[in-house]
Amino acid sequence: MHILLAAATTFEIQPTIGGGWSQVLITGVGGVATTWSLMRQIGIHRPDLIVQAGIGGCFTDAKPGTVFAIREDELADLGVWENESFRTLSDLGLADVNRLPNPYHDLLAFTGLPEASALTINEITTDPRRISWYRQNRDAVVESMEGGPLHYVCLRENIPFLQLRSISNAVGVRDKTKWDIRLAITRLNEQLTRILHRLSSADPSLLTPLK
Question: Is the dihedral of CA 112, 151, 204, 186 positive or negative?
Answer without folding.
Answer: negative
